[in-house]
Design a protein that fits this description.
Rhomboid-like protein; 270 residues; 13 helices; 65% helix; mainly alpha
């Protein structure tokens, strides 16, 4: 006790090994940790954008959409109109060439490069692909595009057969990426933490509800919430895939003993 008092009087530093072992006490000056270097912050922002190596599906698909949008902007208007008609997923084309129009209709963006769909496509699919990989992202997009298209067009055909709608309803211009995009939004929210998930779903839900009240394009207005729900239905599978992909990125081998166990697998003999 006298030794510590004498050292303090002489101005010598008093050490406290136990306190130094506590992480909060490791910086006696109380200074905050240094901010990350600018290069690291730049890399974090760049991860929001698609790249050919990090997100090949989103990057390649986005290039196709840019090319078709430029074609819509600068090609002969009559040629553009004819190509869009042949790419439409209306009942008439679905009955004749279903696979062709389901693929072709997803190569165009309504509104071209100035549409907000282009920005949302790049942002949402990049985030989704970085979490679950390209093949699963493509599967979610195709699921929303195909199922929502068929679920909205088949009732039109049945209504025409029953005489509730005119035959002209079989021929309409229907193309775009919005169904696949909405399914991707629904899938991505399942990989977020609770607060961002609630905010994202709430914002999208308000927008879709408003569209349903306006009902300016009934098939599209009903197809969007359906596609969103399809993405939400994928949450269990995608969360498992995201956990496995994240564990592999950290160098951890998921254990086969439990679906959510990402501890290193015991390779030693029992």
């Amino acid at each position: 006790m006298h030794q510590r008092t004498d050292r303090a009087v002489r101005g010598e530093p008093v050490t406290a090994p136990l306190l130094n072992a506590i992480p909060r006490q490791s910086r006696p000056d109380g200074a905050a940790p240094p901010p990350p270097p600018p290069a690291r912050r730049a890399r974090r922002w760049l991860r929001l954008l698609p790249t050919p190596t990090g997100t090949p599906f989103t990057f390649g698909y986005l290039l196709v959409l840019v090319a078709t949008s430029l074609f819509m902007e600068y090609a002969d208007p009559g040629t553009v109109a004819a190509v869009l008609r042949e790419s439409s997923t209306d009942v008439a084309h679905l009955g004749e060439t279903p696979l062709l129009v389901l693929v072709a209709s997803a190569l165009w963006v309504v509104g071209g490069l100035t549409s907000s769909y282009v920005f949302l496509f790049a942002l949402v699919l990049t985030a989704l692909e970085r979490r679950i990989g390209g093949w699963r992202t493509a599967a979610v997009f195709v699921l929303g595009h195909v199922v929502a298209t068929l679920a909205t067009e088949i009732p039109v055909g049945l209504s025409v057969v029953a005489g509730h709608l005119p035959e002209s309803s079989l021929h309409r211009l229907d193309y775009g990426i919005s169904f696949g995009l909405m399914a991707s939004v629904g899938a991505l929210t399942g990989l977020l933490t609770p607060l961002p998930r609630v905010l994202a779903l709430g914002g999208v839900g308000v927008m879709l509800t408003r569209d349903l009240f306006e009902l300016s394009d009934p098939l599209t207005n009903w197809g969007h919430p359906l596609a969103l729900l399809l993405g939400v239905a994928c949450w269990p599978l995608l969360r498992r895939a995201g956990a496995v992909r994240g564990a592999m990125a950290r160098g951890v081998v998921p254990s086969p003993r439990a679906p959510g166990d990402t501890r290193p697998a015991d390779t030693a003999g029992s």
